[in-house]
Amino acid sequence: MKNKEQSQELIKTLLENIGEDTSRAGLLDTPKRCVKMYEELLSKTNVDPKEEINTFFESDNDEPILVKDIQFYSLCEHHMLPFYGVCHIAYVPNNKKITGLSKLARLVESASRRLQIQEDMTLMLVNAIEEQLQPKGVYVIIEAEHMCMAMRGIKKIGSKTVTSKKTGVFLEDTELVKDIQYKIKL
User: Fold this and answer.
1) Do you know which InterPro entries this protein is assigned to (predicted)?
2) DSSP string spanning 14-41?
3) Are the C-beta atoms of residues 135 and 102 closer than 8 Å to each other?
4) Domains of the chain, residue spans
5) What kind and span of H or E run contains 76?
6) Which residues are annotated binding-site positions?
7) Known binding residues for Zn(2+)
8) What percent of the chain lies above the pLDDT cut of 90?
9) With 80 as the cut, is the pLDDT of residue 1 above it?
10) Any residues with CB less than 8 A from the CB of 184 and at least 6 apart, and which?
C-alpha cells in the first residue's frame, strides 16, 4: 500500500461519517487492522499471475490434467465485498510440457488477490495457462458466492455464479468437456 497513514485516516473518516465513535476501545485500532487486511487481500494487484507458472516438467501424458476445488477469496471491484468459492482447472499437455500441480493453485491464489469481477478472473487464469504452457486446450470453471448479492441488494444467500472459459480441444471435443464436468460434479 502506497500510503498506510493516509489510508488509515480515510477509514477513520469513513467510520466517523457513518456515526461511529472512533475513540471507543473497539475501534481504536480498526483503521490499522483494516489497512493490513486490504494489503493482504489485494497483495497481487500489480502482479502478473502467469509468473506463478515457472516450473516445467516433461510427461508423455496427453490426457487432461485436472486440478479441482482450488479454494479462493477475492474482492468484487463494484462493492469491495468478497466473493469466494472454488476454481477447477483442466488442460491437455502439448509437446510433453506440464507444470507442477501446486503451480496451478498458486496461479489461482495470485489471480484472486485483487479487485475484479469473476468473469475477468476466469479469463486471466486461462490466458496465463495458455501463455506459459501452450497446451492443446484449457478449461477453467469458477463457482463462487458473492457477498454483494448475499449481504445487500437482492440478499440471495447461497446463490452461486459459475463462469467458464474453454480453448483448443475443449472447444472441439464435447465428450472431453462432459468428462471434466463429470469429474468436478458440475
Assistant:
1) GTP-CH-I_C/QueF, GTP-CH-I_N, GTP_CycHdrlase_I, GTP_CycHdrlase_I_CS, GTP_CycHdrlase_I_dom
2) HHHHTT--TTSGGGTTHHHHHHHHHHHH
3) no
4) 4-42, 55-184
5) strand 65-76
6) 76, 79, 148
7) 76, 79, 148
8) 98
9) no
10) 66, 68, 69, 88, 141
Is pLDDT of 186 > 90? no
Cell of 65: 490434467
pLDDT averaged over the chain?
97
For β-strands 161-166 and 137-146, DSSP reports them as antiparallel
How does pLDDT run across 65-119, given as a tens digit for each residue? 999 999 999 999 999 999 999 999 999 999 999 999 999 999 999 999 999 999 9
Cell triple for 97: 510440457
Return the H-helix or E-strand segment holding 143: strand 137-146
In CATH, the number for domain 55-184 is 3.30.1130.10
Q: How far is CA 4 from the centre of its chain?
A: 25
Q: What is the rounded average pLDDT of the residues 50-64? A: 96
DSSP, res 103: H
Give yes or no for residue 2 having a pLDDT over 90.
no
The percentage of residues in the chain with a pLDDT greater than 70, rounded to a whole number, is 100
- Strands of the sheet containing 115-116, edge to edge, are 115-116, 65-76, 82-92, 137-146, 161-166
Q: In the chain, which residue ranges form alpha helices assigned H by DSSP?
A: 4-17, 30-41, 101-112, 118-133, 147-150, 169-172, 174-183
